[in-house]
Every structure is written in structure tokens, then in C-alpha cells.
Amino acid sequence: MVDASLRKVTKRFPGIVALDDVSLDFRGGEIHVLLGENGAGKSTLMGLLAGMQQPDAGEIVIDGKPVHIDSPRRSMDLGIGAVFQQLLLVPSLSVIENLMLGGPWWQPVKRAAALRRFGELATALAIRIDPDALVTALSLGEQQQVEILRALWREEKMLLLDEPTSMLTPQGVADLGRMLRRLKEKGVALILITHKLLEAYEFGDRISVLRQGRLAGEIDPERMRSSSEGERTAEVLRLMFGTEANDERTRHAPDLAALTGRMAHHARPIDRGKPPVLSVSALATEHRVGETALHEVSFDLWSGEVLGIAGVDGNGQKHLAEVLAGQRAVTEGRISLAGRDVTRGRVPERRRAGIRYVTDERLGEGTVGTFSVAINLLLKEIGAPPYWRRGITDWSLIHSSARDKIREHDIRTPSERTPVGKLSGGNIQKVLLARELGADACVAVLNKPTYGLDLQNQRLALERIDAAAERGVALIVISTDLDELLEISDRIGVMFQGHLAGIVDNAADAERKIGSLMTGAKSA
Amino acid sequence: MRKTRIEDGPAAAVLRVLLPVALALVVGGVLLLALGKNPLDYYAFVLERGILRRGGLQETLTRMAPLLLIAAGLIVAFRAGIWNLGGDGQFLLAAVTAAALAPALAGVLPRGATLVLCMAAGALVGAIWSLAPAMLKARYGVNEIVTTLMMSFLGVSLSNVFIKLVLFDPATTVPQTRSLPVDERLPRLFGSTVHSGLLIAVVVLVLIHLMMTRTAFGLKLQVLGANRAAAVHAGERVERLIVLAFVLSAGLIGLAAAVEVLGVWGTVRADWNPAYGLLVVPLVFLARLNGYAVIGFTFFFSALMVGGESAAHRIGIPQYYVLVLVSLLLIFLALVEYLDQSRRKRLAV
Amino acid sequence: MNALLTEPFLVSLLYGAVTAGVPLLLAGLGEQMSEKAGVLNVGIEGMMLFGAYAGFVAAWYTGSFWLGFLAGGLGGAAVAFIVLLLCIRRGLNQIVIGIAVTMGCQGLTALLHFVEFSRTYPRLTAAPVFALPYLSRIPILGKGLFSHSPIVYLSVLLAAALTWLYRATYFGLSLEAAGNKPAALDAAGVDVIRTRSVSVLFTGFLAGLGGAYMAVVGAGLFVPFMTGGAGFIGIVLAMLARGRPVWVLLGAALFGVSLAMTTALQVAGLNVPTDVVQMLPFAAVMAVLVIFARHSMLPPALGLPYVRGER
Question: What is the ipTM score, two decimals?
């Protein structure tokens, strides 16, 4: 049994106070959920316990003694295990090699002992993975299981999980739940960080709500058991957003469903009598060894429609986005846009035909972080008139046009010349949306458009998508957030192992059908 | 509206450049003291011989010509994220080409035509020598540090082979190409001893700078260098850009060689290798890849070399010291920039 | 052709190959460890030169060759320490600092040599040779391969030792992680900075040792810029060896043979121009790259995952 506490902990970063005077207790044998929207400070808290950062004020107490967690090693020594959202496994090593990382340097590797410990933990948690398998051969869910093993390797005292269900199938989520309950029985203190309300109810014994770096309130096990879901939800919402009647958020989204991420879907008037604006048949793409290959993908898309693409990460969604955008070559099949065959073209040709692509890697691929907002707004049009005449750049036109777009799309930036990397995630996404969902867009592919954004910016992105659909743009939205897809899509396709397992109309039983398609069932 | 701090003004920019220079001079001076020499004497001597005297100034300006062109070539490559470390090989092969071609053409064509053709030939040979590394990187992603280094060693040896076995002037004792008569070389400027190659170099460098900052092509190269994935995402033909950047870079280095041969030496001696390819790299970094700043740094460096040579004879401080100074400059520049950036980050809290 | 199979030619070739190849081997093995950890050490040429000078000075003033080697190694490590401070701890650009360090060492060693020795140009006596007991009596091979300074045998053993180190110890795992996904290493509780620092220091030590060998054993004296690009060749060897010390050994042997070929040919009475022969190894490397690039035998960044030197 362990008792760990944070007492009046404060952590500041340049320009923001991530945690403000937070005090929390964690107990062994209990699943304590930290709930809050993106940016509320949950990940920072985890970082402190994991030794990634140190508090600016306050202290951390473990088993009654104040401790200084100044490195991941120290955190591990204290019995704290952390599983982050970004998986931290070395891809070129095997599972057991990853787990053995950290031994004293000059010693030969103690494989036998490691295998024994592996067997011990794996049995206890009902995990079935080959210890000699290379990490790259494992699915994301399996990789996460390895991370959990790694977190519990030294001793099973305390386990922190940051958004663990974001890359799991519904089945995987159930498996995780079972594992967590097993650990709870062993007396491990479990801390689960999430922004999903329903998940908090499902797993949590205790819920603490963080809001803008402060502890807004707590729901203890007593109240969790005794209150109804409605009461709990109301309580949580009050803690997350306050009771002020004029609160902007409650005004914009008057019903519970919106705040829990489940807005009702309004059906759009789509004329399927007209020919589809995008037609994809039997598509296959190039791929490297070890990547999921796209094959036999076929679907049609109509103007003004939003086609959601669901599925666990790594089932070919990224390749689908890239092949439609022209970044990845087609090896088989056809793509036609408004009746014209565009299969052979690459990015410039697809863009000219009207296809737009909002990538999920905003800074890695979508923008050049060191370049100004103005240049990034025109990144895909370098050399094109009117900003370039015979190859010569018209800087004043570029900057004035950027200023207009910044105003129009409410992009918060000191100026159009600011390097785009300095903007917040939400504003970088606004730049991308402004660039791609412009006037000439015919078909737009968006990959995880709301990932990592706070609620306000998430809503904004979804609104932009909605507005584009109303203008007649045909949109494909790829996301791992099923609730989001259910809100905005007219139809939802499910990717499974590089294959479009099926397309489901967004009707009442959609979620059930999608769930079963995600596991590979052939029919809905 | 954000308040503009003092740190962001032009005064600060100048300080960011002068501070590393000052630090380098001071630390270098300490080294000289440790070796029993007077640094102030040295610096004063260099200043006088390199800049203040007419003969020295002309020599300094003459030295700048090839360096400016090589700098232009490196700016193109580095901005595109390409480490063209093959400058020496590209330089020498182009030099040999120009030196071999010139005397042959001089008898047949008017001076202007000969010079232009030889310069073009030099640029072409330099460019061709970069094709293998260029295509290996563009097509297969082979690291260009390896390939350009290899091609450089190869180029240096190959040029020596050409001189010693094929092109040598039978009339000389030391193997060298047939000499181009002085009146067939690049014309002098305004009655000085500085040849017009300097003018060509400055014009080309400015043009390259303008290309990088004011054309679509230049911007595309910069996108490629800053974030290759973004370049692909934006629909740029990355393979084509890589080859073009390489070829342009090596072509400029080849031009530098031709200019040096046609303006100064008129011949290429065997085993001659001024090794400008690596020497210009620090200058280009110090100038932060800006064409105008490069001119300033190159002038300073050339003066240092010319003055330093004189000092080597007169004061007994060998030319090697210049290498130490330049390396100190580079290190201090990197340090100052780093400190500046981390100060900004702290202040932004 | 007969002239090539004579004893004088073969012995000269083998002996010369070892003498030329050992510095390349040491530089390559050193650079390989840095690169495994994700550090591109462009300053290795400077480390070799500094080691050459330090080794020469130590051997000259103490009369002990072993002290010379030690001084050389420490000298190289000292230069590596500067790279460590600037690039690993502070994160400055590794290529810029590497070039600066190389130039600085070139200038500094030449300057120091000028001040100390330019009037006298001293030479060391021949370095002691340790002829391996039975092996050195084999005809041709004995004189060519097995009658060398002990450093030679140690270098070869080093390649074997490193192979074991990389494959079977925790340090090897840490290196792999540091070069592939430093965040994972950090999360496992191992200090990434320390791992990379150790690698860089080790590289410096080996490079310095290689330089010292060139000065103390190979030439018997110090000449400014005497390493002549050996450090850069070491970088190339490390890049092509894909993490296996054995391949560095083979590559160094290949280069050693071609570098020794000219002298050997002269011994055999054939006068092939130096420059032509010297082109051979570089041409061979380029040929390998061109032929095998298509089969993607070389990974895109040639095993340089974190050149930025960031965590």
C-alpha cells in the first residue's frame, strides 16, 4: 500500500502557469482519475511524478517522506511507473531488450533473469507477447502493454497512465480495464489521466478535476458510488467549467452531450443522385517493409458530404490520406475527381484538381516552424501568381494578404512575420485550416484535425469542417475519436489492416457496427 | 502590440557579430602571449599590411574573388540542407580544366571569348563532379557527407594525375599546365592589380543572395533545407531540387577556380591545393548564410590571410595562427548565439 | 606480374597496409561509437592531429613510447571534451563545431610545433616492435603482419572487444537506444547526456591514439597537418560499417592496402604514379555506394538518427 501526495505544487513554463498550488492524494488499491481538458495541467503533473520536471513550489511526499524526483531514474527508484501518450520504446530493439534497458553498463546482459521477471508480470496481467519480438512488429496496443510492463518492472507500487485509451480498439479498452482492476487488487496505486468523461466514470474510483492548472474539485469514492450518472456529470461539468450562467462554453453548447463530446448529428442534405465528386476504386499504394499496405480500397464521395474514417492508428489511415493527396504513389486502382482520372498525378496535380490535405503532423510536415505565418499560408503555392510573377516574389502582397487571412480566421499571432512554430497548437491548426479549406477546395482530407487541441479550438475546427461541407466541399475526416466522427460525419468508414472494412451510415446503430468492424469482422 | 526590446534592434544584431569577433581576438591574443609573442603587434601588423597599405589592400581584394564565389556555392547548398563538403575536388578539377583550355583557346579566339568559355568550362566541370553525390542523395537518400568527401579526395588526386601525366608543360621543371600569358588573363580593374574576377564574384554573390531571398526557386530550396517533409507535403519535386542545388553549388565553386586561375596564376601547379573548400565553411556560417554579410567576413578573412603571411615573414608568427583564430571565431559565434537564445527563452516567462 | 608476387613486394605491402590502416581503424572504431550514440563527430580529424602532436611531444621528452600513446589518447580526449561541452551538453550544431575544432587543432598543432621544433625538427628513434612468438616466423606474413608495435595487435583486439560490448552488455543497449530513440533511454532512467558524453570521449581517445601512432610509430616525427584526412576517412568507414566493428576493420584494411600500394610497387620496381594508386580506395567506396544504393543496403541517414544532438 502506498500513499503519495502532492502538496501545494506549482509549476511554471515560459508564458504559462501549468500547475497552480495543487494538492492531491493518491492511495494504493485505488484508481484515481485526473480529468480535464487539453492544457489543464494533467500531463505536467505526470511529468513531475515521472521525474521529467521539478516543481517550482510545493513538495511531493511519498510514504510520509518528502522527496525530490529529479530524474526518471529517481522516479523509478521510488516505485513510480509512467506510461506516456507517446510510446517510448526503441523500435530497433526487441521487447525484452527494451525492458532490460537501464542496467549497469559494464555488465553483460542478464537475459535469464529478465525473462523470468517478464514471465511473472505477463502472467499476472494476462499479457501474451513474445519477448523476443521486435517492437516494430507489435501493434500499438501491444506496444502499450510492453510500456505497462516496463512501468511495473522494478516493483508494482504506483502506475501513471496518460490518455491510455486513445489508441485502442473498444476490445483493447476492455482488456486494459481488466488489467487495471487486477493491479488494483494487488494494491497498486493507479493514476489515470484523461479528457474523456465516460472513461473517467468507467475506470475511476475517485475523480479529480483540473481546470487551467488548478484543482477545481474532487469526487470521492463515496459519492462516485452513491450518485447517479446524471448527478456526477453535472458535478463534473460544474467543476470543469464553472456555474456562471454567462459562461461562454455553456452558452455555445447548451446540452450535456456537447461537453461530453457527443453532439447530436444533423443530417446534411446530400444529393446522391448526382455523380460523386471523388471516386476511388481498388486502390493500393507503395509501402516500406513493416508498414501496413493499403489495398483494395474503394469508395465514393459526394459534394457537401463528410466521410469519417475510423480505426485504430496504424491501420493504413495515414497512407490513405497521403495517397489521396498525392504524396504517395498509387500502385493499383484508380482515383477520379469530378469524372477526371487523376491517378497518375502527384501533389501539384492533385492540388490543381482541387484536393486539399490537412496533415496530422502540424509542425513535422504541415508547416516549416522557422518560417513566418505568411509564408506558411502559401507553402503549397510557391511560384504561383499573383504572389510570384515570373518567379520573383512579391513580398508586400504576400504579407498584406496574410494579414487579411489572419484577421479572417482569427489566428492569434503577434504578426504575419512571426515564425509559425511560436504559435500555440490551436493557432497552428487555424493556419492549416485557413490554407487548405480555402475557396478552391473541392475535396479536403483532414487527418486528426482536433488532436491535441483544447476544447475551444476543437469546436472551432469542427465548425470549420461543417461550414466547408455547407459550401459544397467534400470532406474526409480521419480520426481516432469516435465521438467526434459520430458528430460530424454523414457516413463513417472503418480502416482495418490497410483495408476499408466497411462504410456505415451515421444512424442509431452506427457505433455498434463500427466497433465490430474495427475488430476485423467482415460485415457490420 | 508587443514592445520591441533593445535586444531585437539593429544595435543588438551588430553586437551579436562583434562580440564573438572580440572574444576570438582576445583569446587568440592570450595564446600568442603564452607563446611569447605580442598580440597587439600582430594585430596592428595584420591591419596595416592587409588593409592600410595599398599593395596589401589590393592583394586582399584579389584573394577575395574565389572565396566569394565558393561562399555563394556553399550558401546555396547549406540553405537547401545539403552538406557539400566536396569543394576541394570540385575546385581543383575546374581549375585544371580552365588552365588547360585557356592557352589552347587564347591563340584562336579573342581574349573575352576565351575567358568566358574557360569560366563556363570550369563551372561545368565543377557541376559535373557533383552529379554522382547529387543523384545518390536525391534518388536513394545516400548521405552526402560521405559521397562528397570521397569525390573530393578523388578529384584532388585526379587533377594531379592530369597535370603530371597529361597536361604538363614540358618546359618547366615542376609539373604544371602550360601557362597563360599575362595579357590573356582577366583584365585588371581601374589600373590596380586587382583583376575583374573580383567584380564578377561580387555580382554573382549578390545575384545568388537575391535569388535565395526573392525568388520562388530560392524559397523552395529554403523549404527543402528547413523541413524536407514539409517540402514533400507542399508538392515540391524534391529530387529535382536536390540535384539542382548540388549542381549550382558545385558550378559556383568551379567558377571560383576558373576565376582564380584566369585572374591570378595562369597555370595550375601539381600538388597545389589551397583547400578553400573547407576554409570558406566557417565564413559562411559566421555570416549566417547571408550574402552581404559574407562579403564583410570574407574581406576580414582575406586581410587576415594577407597580413598574416606578411607577419609570418616579419614577426615570426606563422600562418597557422589564422586557422586558430577562425576556429575560435566560429566557436564563440555558436556560443554567443546559444546564450542569446537561452536568454530570450528565460525572459519570455 | 611476377614482380608482384615477390617477397619484398608482399612484405612491403602488408607492412605498409598495417601501418597505414591502424590509424584508420582506430579513428573508425571511435567514430562508430559516437555515431551509434547518435553523435556525428566531424571534429575527429582535429582530435587525431592533437593526439599526434601530444604523443610526439610526450615520446620525445620522456623517451617512453607508451607514455607517448597515452598522451596521444588523452590529447584526443581533451579535444573531445570541448565537443562534449559545446555539442552534447549545450546542443550546438555538431557539424559547425566539428569543422571549427578540426581547423583549430590543425592550426594549433602546427603553431605549437613551429614554436617548439621548427628549428630542430627532431626525429624519434624507431618504435619498439613486438614480434609475435610463432606467427612472426611465417614467411612473408610474419614480417608483414606480425612484427609490429603492440598497439597494432591491441587495435585488432579492440575491434573484437567492441563487438562483444555492443552485443552483450547494457552499454551496448544504451548506445542503441541513445542513437535510435533517446527519449526511450531517458524514460528507462539512463542519462542520455552521459551516454553520449562517454561515447564522444572514447572517440576522442581512440582518435588521439591513432594520431599518436601515426606520429610516433609511422613517421617518427610530427609534421603539420600530417593526418591528411585520416579522420574523415574514419567517418566514412564508420558510416559504411553499419554498426559492426568488423566492417570497420575490413574497410581500414582495404584503405591501408591501397595507401601502401605505391611504396610497395616502387619496392617491386614498378613505377605507378602515386596519385593513381591513391585514388583506388576512394573510387572503390564510390563504386560500392553506387552499385548497392539501389538495394537500399544503406539506410537513408546512414545511421545518423540524432545529428541534432538533441535529446
Answer: 0.86
Query: pLDDT digit string (tens) for A278-333?
Result: 999 999 988 876 677 888 999 999 999 999 999 887 788 999 999 999 999 999 99
What's the pLDDT tens digit per position in C153-205?
Answer: 999 999 999 999 999 999 999 998 888 888 888 888 888 889 999 999 999 99
Residue ranges per structural domain of chain A = 3-226, 278-518
Q: Could you say which residues from 116 to 145 on chain B have a Cβ atom under 8 Å away from some Cβ of chain C? A: 132, 136, 139-143, 145
Domain borders along chain C are 21-243
Residue B83 included in any domain: yes
Structural domain contains residue B18: no
pLDDT at B16 over 90: no
Contact A102 C191 (CB under 8 A): no
- Assess if residue B162 is contained within a domain: yes
Q: How many CB pairs under 8 A join A and B?
A: 75
Touching check for A414 and chain B: CB below 8 Å? yes
- Quick check: is B113 in a domain? yes
In 3D, which of C304, C299, A365 has the Cα closest to residue B141? C299
A3-226 has which CATH code? Answer: 3.40.50.300
Average pLDDT over residues A261-275: 77
Domain that holds residue B246: 60-292
Q: Are C106 and C224 in contact (CB under 8 A)?
A: yes
3-state helix, strand and coil shares in percent for chain A, rounded to the nearest 5? 35, 25, 40
Number of folded domains that form chain B: 1
pLDDT digits (tens, 9 = 90+) for C50-106: 999 999 999 989 988 899 999 999 999 999 999 999 888 887 888 889 989 999 999
Tell me the pTM.
Answer: 0.87
Query: What's the CATH number of domain A278-518, 3.30.750.24, 3.40.50.300, 3.30.70.100, 3.30.70.240?
Result: 3.40.50.300
Among B238, B336, B230, B220, residue whose Cα is nearest residue B288: B336
Expressed in angstroms, the distance from the first to the final Cα of chain C is 56
Which chain C residues are Cβ-neighbours of B136 within 8 angstroms? Answer: 289-290, 293
Q: Per-residue pLDDT tens for B190-206?
A: 777 888 899 999 999 99
Name the nearest CA neighbour of A488 among A502, A472, A471, A476.
Answer: A476
> How many other CB atoms sit within 10 Å of the CB of residue A255?
11
